[in-house]
Amino acid sequence: MEMSIFITALCVSIIYLLMKFLEMRVIEKANKPLKLLARDTLLVYLSVLTGHFILIQLSPMTNTGTVPQVFTAEPDF
Q1: Which parts of the chain span the membrane according to its record (predicted)?
Q2: Around Cβ 53, how many Cβ atoms within 10 Å?
């Protein structure tokens, strides 16, 4: 199942936002501005996209499995 990297990054960002919100409400019992949570979530989204781009650029080229056609016999002239 091939998912778009944008959908994957969105899912990771939403999970991050929910975890930070629960941490803020349950563990810290302090309110942070929503602007900070949105900024951090956007940073996570961009980090996932950047990480995926770097992995794609650094991954080795896949071999297509075709052998180049070359002429190896004696020439007819």
Answers
A1: 6-22, 42-59
A2: 11
Tell me the per-residue pLDDT of 12-29, one tens digit each, with 9 for 90 and over.
999 999 999 999 989 888
Distances 5 to 11, 29, 54, 57, 72 between C-alpha atoms, Å: 10, 34, 13, 14, 45
Distance (Å, whole) CA 66 – CA 68? 6
Domain boundaries, the chain: 19-58
Q: Is the pTM of this model over 0.85?
A: no
14 in Cβ contact with 22 (< 8 Å): no
DSSP for 11-75, written as a single string: HHHHHHHHHHHHIIIIII-----HHHHHHHHHHHHHHHHHHHHHHHHHSPPPP--PPPP---SPP
